[in-house]
Amino acid sequence: MNISLQKIIPHPLAPSLILPSDVWGEEVSFTCGTSTLLEAQSGKGKSTLLHILYGMRRDFDGFCLLNGKDISSLRETKWQHLRSCKVSLLFQDLRLFKHMSLRENLHLVPETDPQAPPLEEMCERLQIGHLLDRPVHTLSLGQRQRAALIRSLTKPFQWLFLDEPFSHLDEANASEAALLIQESKERNQAGLLLTSLQAECPLACDRSLQL
Amino acid sequence: MRNRLSRLLERCLGQKSQRQELWAASLGCLVGSCLIISAIQIYSDTRMFTDKAIQASSFVTLNKKIEGGILLNLTQQNKAFSTEEIERVKQLPGVVDIGGFSRNQFPVTVHIWPGGKVGLGAAARADLFFESIPNRFLDQLPDAWQWDSKELIVPIMVPKFYLDLWNFGLAPSRSEYPALSPDAASSMPIEIFIGDNPPTRLLGRFVAFSKRINSVLVPASFLEWANSKFGGEEAETYFFVWANGTIEGPPLSFSQLRELNKDENTLVSPIEQPSEKIRLSDALKEGISPAGPARLIVRLENSDDQEFFKSVESLGYETNREVTHQGWVHKGANLLTLVLTAIGSVLSLLSLATFSSSFRLLVLQSGESIRDLVLLGFSPTEISRIFIVRFTAIFVPIWAISLLVIYMAKFFLVKYADAYGLFLEAGLGWPTWGGAFLYSALFVWINQRVIRGAVSSLS
To answer: Where are the alpha helices (DSSP H) in B19-126?
Structure first.
């Protein structure tokens, strides 16, 4: 499943603010199985791009093609199918259910990747295994970010979109998280789009684009 | 796995609840459901009653009005219908069939033995009359209704309300008379004494209780036989004999008229209609019945035919007005059903609106969670199911309780009605079950649509 962007300009962002760019207003392709770092300062539309690719926003000019098909023409049922088992997104605002426990949050996905390591193992690796039965609202931001990352990795996917996945992690946890992401990507033979504020990312990507 | 996921979804979306609104909606729904279900049941029950009543009351009995004082009525021996009068009634609008009541021409006294055996206990004694009508006018034709002169027992049919009068009037006030079921009443021996000096004794038995004919009926074959054997002149009509424009001498009976040596052109007139003069020869030739029917039974096409009743009134006849009363009962029942349906519908609509808006609010309050679930890949249908299950868990018990309440109410009503001699079918009728299922299906369908719509608007 390949992604192709054709002269995309998002409506909320003024062209004077986001141009010049490697992505906005350009023709760019992302091949499944490759990893791309989308690097930019705040306000340049990193989250906006991932939201467009995830079908959350339709307010843009240009064309976004998924395997050659314009995503604007996809019906809700198709998006539901894509989100449940083809594309996984780590939201920047995490979108965990705060009144539920960490374990419940991690189990609350429509489909689970049967090849994925057990949740407990992933949680242990990211040092939140002892928090599994704690309500999410009692966790720190860093702990929540690791939980949301694990949730996005438990779903089956062909594309993994990660919106600033290391922004609240310390160096050790960021390295371990990068390792976990790399393993999941390879296991799924998936494509990876990763946004980051800084060029120094703990995860080595095939290419890097400036927004 | 799916169950676990459903439980997690339920937990995810189960935080907010509109307890007060849902309680109010539940109560409204309970009352509304009860009213609607009871309206259907009342309608079915009253239809059953009034249909039977209307079927019975499409038969009307007619007689001439009895007016004036005792002395006047002593001179008028009967109020019989002449052939012309019967023909005139036959021509009235809405008349399908007509028949006359024949009556006994001899005195009758009966002794009824409720003990079950002649001579056992006390007998109820009464001076009585017998009438007969053509079999086609009877609402029931028991096997024992056939009678010939070799039969030892005379079959008798009395109105059902005679039995009710016995059970609820006579029996409670007299310890020697027990209350009787129709079967028990049918097995009572009845002694029939006909005539005087000395009376002839026959045995009789109640064979049926009519809801249509208000008379003491015996088979026509028996009445013909008994009239020919025991009938006397005392029951005959008397005639005035006219000479030179004035009445000559005292009134004469039909038998005396036959023996009168007068010119055949002599005019005579029935005592009750002195102005209707006819020639003596015609009177004898036509064989004016000494006892033409004093009552007629008429079958109407439409039991509530006002034109017929107006015509009958203008002719100076009386009818049993049961038809009109049944019509009012029918209208009253319809009105009651209408009122109950209207109130039930309004309450149900209100509860439906409250239910729908409560659940819509519930969905909207979980809007953020619903949006996140959709972004995780859950379908709006899966999410809606959580709210629909929650709605069903509230509605189904309410609906079941409504049915139970009406079922119990009907149970006690049947018992209550039975004490008054009214028969009501036990349990709820199929229209009630059908209506209740239709109502619940509609209620669930509308709420499902509202919930699905609200979830879809968020996804």
So the answer is: 19-57, 70-75, 83-90
B379–A contact, CB cutoff 8 A = yes
| CA–CA gap between residue B22 and residue B385 (Å, rounded) | 18
Residue pointed to by tokens 């009926």: B217
The rounded distance, in Å, linking the Cα atoms of A45 and A209 is 13
Q: Which domains does chain A have, with CATH numbers?
A: 3-210 (3.40.50.300)
- Chain A residues with CB under 8 Å of B9 CB are 108
pLDDT one-digit tens code per residue, B59-68? 888 888 766 5
Mutation to test the A interface, candidates B372, B376, B378, B384, most A Cβ within 10 Å: B376
Indicate the average pLDDT of chain B. 79
d(CA B257, CA B438): 75
In chain B, domain spans:
2-56+326-458, 60-233+292-320, 238-286
Q: What is the pTM of this model?
A: 0.61
Residue B189 predicted with pLDDT over 60: yes
Lowest mean pLDDT of A121-125, B9-13, B252-256, name the range.
Answer: B252-256
Distance (Å, rounded) from C-alpha A203 to C-alpha B209? 101
Provide the residue count of chain A.
Answer: 211
pLDDT beneath 50: ranges in chain A: none
**ipTM value greater than 0.85:** yes
Q: Is A130 an 8 Å CB contact of chain B? A: no
**Does the beta-carbon distance from B379 to A77 stay under 8 Å?**
yes
Alpha-carbon torsion (B262, B267, B270, B272), positive or negative: negative
Q: Are B111 and B191 in contact (CB under 8 A)?
A: yes
Secondary structure element (H or E) that encloses residue A65, with its range: strand A60-66
- Residues in Cβ contact with A4 at an 8 Å cutoff, skipping those fewer than 6 apart: A27, A28, A29, A30, A63, A64, A65, A68
User: Model confidence at B54, in pLDDT bands (50, 70, 90)?
Assistant: low
Sign of CA pseudo-dihedral A127, A132, A138, A141 = positive
A-chain CB neighbours of B369 within 8 Å are: 97
Rounded to an integer, what distance in angstroms lies between the CA atom of residue B447 and that of residue B458?
17
Which residues have C-beta within 8 Å of that of residue B58, sequence separation ≥ 6?
B299, B300, B301, B302, B303, B323
Q: What is the pLDDT of residues B144-162, one digit of tens each?
A: 888 887 777 899 998 888 8
